[in-house]
Amino acid sequence: MNRFLVLRDAYGSVQAILPDSKRHQFEEIVKSLNYESVLRIRGVVRNRGKARNPKIKTGDIELEIDDLEVINEAPPVLPLLSDQNALEQTKLKYRYLEFRSEDMQQKFRLRAQVTSRLRHFFEKLGFVEVETPTLSQWTPGGAAEFLVPAAKPNLGRFYTLPQSPQLYKQLLMCGGIDRYFQIARCYRDEATKSDRQPEFTQVDFELSFTSKEKVMQLVEELIKTAWPESLNEYEIFSSPFQRMKYEQAMNDYGTDKPDLRIPWKFENCPKKMASILKTGVEEKENFSARMFIAKGTGRHCTEEPMSVWKKLIEINPHAQPFDIFIPPNQTGFNNWDSDFDTNDLVTKYDIGPDDAVVFCWGETDGVQRTLGFLRNYLADTIGLRKKSGFKFVWIVDFPFFEKKQGNFECLHHPFTAPIKEDEIRLWKMEGLENIIAQHYDLVLNGVELGGGTIRIHDPKLQRHVFEKVLKLPTKHLEPFFEALSYGAPPHGGFALGLDRFIALLSQQGNVHTSIRDVIAFPKTKDGKCFLMNTPNEAPPGTLERYGLQIVKGEEKQNLV
Amino acid sequence: MNRFLVLRDAYGSVQAILPDSKRHQFEEIVKSLNYESVLRIRGVVRNRGKARNPKIKTGDIELEIDDLEVINEAPPVLPLLSDQNALEQTKLKYRYLEFRSEDMQQKFRLRAQVTSRLRHFFEKLGFVEVETPTLSQWTPGGAAEFLVPAAKPNLGRFYTLPQSPQLYKQLLMCGGIDRYFQIARCYRDEATKSDRQPEFTQVDFELSFTSKEKVMQLVEELIKTAWPESLNEYEIFSSPFQRMKYEQAMNDYGTDKPDLRIPWKFENCPKKMASILKTGVEEKENFSARMFIAKGTGRHCTEEPMSVWKKLIEINPHAQPFDIFIPPNQTGFNNWDSDFDTNDLVTKYDIGPDDAVVFCWGETDGVQRTLGFLRNYLADTIGLRKKSGFKFVWIVDFPFFEKKQGNFECLHHPFTAPIKEDEIRLWKMEGLENIIAQHYDLVLNGVELGGGTIRIHDPKLQRHVFEKVLKLPTKHLEPFFEALSYGAPPHGGFALGLDRFIALLSQQGNVHTSIRDVIAFPKTKDGKCFLMNTPNEAPPGTLERYGLQIVKGEEKQNLV
C-alpha cells in the first residue's frame, strides 16, 4: 500500500506510482505525505495496460516515479476540505482553498473567457477602450458613494469612488472619442441590500450619433458574441429579443423585471369577487382587485410558506392584503370561499385540482407589486426559477420621473433624454409624470442585467432637468454643463452588470445564485472580507495624515 | 463666400458645399455657424474634378448639401482652440476639448490597441484574467495607501486602496489558478513625487512553478507581441534583451535604471587628480573620485546650467561635490586645472575640443549617484534622451535588503525570495546586506518599466523576513502566512507600468514625456483634477455617515 499518489494541477489529475526500485529511497516520504502538498516529480509516463481506469481522463497512463521532491508540505487537515458543509464565513475565509475545486476553476475560467469575448466584440467595431478615474467627484442623486480622504495639500477634502463612469464617458463623447468601452470597476456603499457588493464590475459603453434602436441591437449582438459554446442553451434565445413596454410589464407582471419563464399573467378578479373584496377597504379610489393562476402550485400553498410570504411582503411599504385559494379537496389549506363566484372562476380559467388562485386587493400600484412578489414565490415552490434556460426581454418606454413625497425623482438617471415628442412638455413642466424617457433595461430571467439611455446633449435642457424638475444642487455639475455647451454630439450607451451576467451563465440561468460565486474575493452582505479582515482599524498615523478623527463612541464598534 | 463647411469626425474630415439650389434655404445658417458645432448633413458625394485638393486624404471628393440640421451649436470662442499656448491647468480643465485633436485621438487609440494585444498574449498562453478587490487591507511597509471609511455596521473601520494586487495574486496561486493576469488599477498616495499619479494602471501577472528566467522570457515576448506596427523602431531592440547586474549598473552608470542610449560610462579619475581631490575631504574612508567623459557637450557647460544642476543635485541627501572640465579655448566656462595631469587625460581618453570631463569626489555611493544624475543632465543638453529609439535592459541580482538608520528595509518588497545559495544565510541572519534577491527590473531608456520577483512560498521563511529581519507588524498578514501553509506552489510574477509604457511608445522613446499625456483624465502633481474639481468637500451628511470629523483647523485649507 501507499505506493500510489494522485497528482493534480489546474487542468486535471494523474496517478503516480512508486516502483520497487525506488522504494528504499522514497517509501517513507510517500507514506507520510499529507494531501494537498506540493511535489515535484520526475518520472516516465507508462501505459497502465490492463490496470487502466476508463472512468478517468488520464486513466490509460501512470507516472512511474524516478525522482521526488516535497516542495511545500500541507498540514494533515485543511480547513475546508475536511468539512464539506463549511459555513459561508469559513468558506470566504479560506477562499483560496475553494479555488482548488473544479467548480470554481471552471467558473473563473468562464468569467475570463466571456470577458475576453465582450472586449473583442467592441474592438472589432472600433470602440476605444478608455480607463476613467476612480478617484472622482460625487454626483447628486443616486446611491451612497464611498469617500476617499485626501492628504496635504488637499487636507479636509475628499475624492469619491464612482457608481459608474457616467460623466466621464459623456465627456469622452464631447471629446470626439465617438465609440468608447470599458470593463469598469464601480462602487456603491449600500452593503445592506441583498446580493450587492460594495465594488462590482460593469461592461460600460457609449457612442455618438446613435439611437435607442442601435444601442439595443448592439447589446443583443454583444451578448450573442460573448455567449460561451459550453452552454447548450445557445439556441434558446430568439433574435431579436422580446420587447415590452414598462406599463405592460407592470400591468401583467407587477414588476419591471419579469421572469418570463413563469407563464402566469395578472388579470382583474371577477366582478362579484372584486366587489366583496372592496367592501372591507377604506380607500376606494384607485382600488384594484387582481389575481393570477399559479398552475401546479396548489399542494405547496400550505400555512407555513404562506406565513413566510406574508412577512416578506409586509416589509414593502406598498404591500396590500392578499390571499390564495386552492380548489376544495386538496391537501393544502382550504379557504375556498363560496361567497365568491367560484364556479365561474373554475370554468373560465380552467383551474385544475392542483392550481392556486393568488389574489390581492387595495391600492392599484401596491396590488401589482404584491402580486409581482407572489408570482416569484409561487414559481419557486415548483422550481420554475431554478430551471435552466434563458429568457431575455427588453423593458422600454419607462416614465422619466416618479413623484415621491411631492418631489420628482428620476426612475433611472437625470442624464436621460426624453422621447422627442415629450421634449416640449418637459420644458413646459406639463404632465411630468407621463413623460417617457429614452431608457431601455435588459432583463434576463427576471434579473436586471443592465440598462442604458440616450442622453441629453443640450446643456440648457440638462440644466433644466436638474434645477427645475429635480431641484438638485448643480454646483459640481457646472463643468459638465459647460462641456455639453461646446458642441456635444448626441450620444447614448449602456452598462451591463458583468458579475450578474456571469453568475447566471455559470448556473445555466438559475436565478438562485449569488454574484459572490463569481467574484474572486467577495465581501459579505455587511461589506466584510473574512479572508483579509477588512475593513479594519486605520493603519497607525493615517487618520492624522488625512486630518480626520473618529467621532467619539464609534471607535470600538463591531470588531471583526 | 461661406458656402463651404469642413465636417470632421474621429477619423478625418471632408469638405461640404452648399449648392446654389439650396442657398435660399441654408445660407444664413451656414454663414452664422460657429466652429466645432455639431451638424447633421444629408447630401451627395461628388467628385471635385479639377478643384481636387491632393494635399488632404478626402481631397478628391466633396459633399453637396441637400439637407442640414444644427444639432448642437458651439459658442463663437472655445477655451482651448482659441489659445494654442494654454496653461497646463486650462488644458486639464478642458481635457475633453484636447481630446478632439488628432494627436490625442491617436494616443488613446494606441493605448487601447496595445492594451488589447497585451491581453491577447496572456489569453493565448492560458493565463486567466481575475479581478481582485480594490477595497482592500493595508500592508506594512511600502507607499502610503488611501483610506476608504466604512459605514455601519463597520463604523470606525477602513478599507485601503491597494498599491498592487500583490497579496491577492499570491492567494490565487495558493488556489491553483496557476496562471493569472490582470490590467489592474493601483493606488499610491504620494502625489508630491513628480510624474506620479494617485491612481495608475499595472499589467500584472503571476504564475506557478516558474523561474526568474521563464518570467523574463515571458515579459520579452509580451512586449514584442504588444509592440505597435506603427512604430518603425520595431527592429531596434535585440532579442533577448540585454541583462546587467545591479552592481554593474550602479558602478558604470550610478543608477539601477540606466539609459543605455547614452554611451558614457564612469571610471576612476587618474591617480594624481584623485589624490588632489582627496586632500580637501574630511572622511577619507570609502572615498572615491570618479568621472565620465560627456562627448560633444562642452559648449553647453556654461555657468547657467551648471548652477541649475548643482541645485537639483543638492536636494539629494547623498549628493557629493562635482565639477566639470572642458578643454581650453572653448566658448564655455574654462576651469581646466593644470595641477591635474590634464595632458594625460586628453591623450588617454581622446578628449576632443567639444567634450566635457564630469567628475565627482567623496563618499563612494554618493559619488556614483551624483554622477548618475549628471550623466542624464549632460545627455539632455545634446538631446540624447529625447531621441527616438528603444533600449531595453534587465537589471538583475539586486540586494534583498538595504540598511537604513540601523534597520533593514527591502529594496523591492518583502515577498521576494532570495537566491537559493543565499537562503541559509537569510535564516542565519548572516551578512544580510549581501543577500541577493530573485528580483528583476525592466528598464527602457532609463525608465523603470516594471519589475517582478520570484516569491517566498515557505510560510516560515516569509514570517522570518517580516518579523526577524524587517521587524514589521504582521497582524494583518496572518491570513496570508496561513494560506502559504496549505501547500502553496512556488510562484513568481511581474508588473508592468502601463501608463509609462504607453507614454514612451507614443513619444517614440523620448523620456521627456509625462504619463499624464496618456491618461484620459489625469490629476496634477498635487492630486487635483481641474476638470471635475476634485478633491472637494465631502457631500452633505457623508462625514456623519462614516462617523468622522475633520480635525479643527483643517477645514478650510486650500480651496480648489
Automatic annotation (TrEMBL), chains A, B:
PROSITE patterns: AA_TRNA_LIGASE_II. Belongs to the class-II aminoacyl-tRNA synthetase family. Type 1 subfamily. InterPro entries: Aa-tRNA-synt_II, aa-tRNA-synth_II, aa-tRNA-synth_II/BPL/LPL, Asp-tRNA-ligase_1, Asp/Asn-tRNA-synth_IIb, GAD-like_sf, NA-bd_OB-fold, NA-bd_OB_tRNA. This is Aminoacyl-transfer RNA synthetases class-II family profile domain-containing protein. GO terms for biological process: aspartyl-tRNA aminoacylation. It comes from the Eukaryota. The keyword Aminoacyl-tRNA synthetase applies.
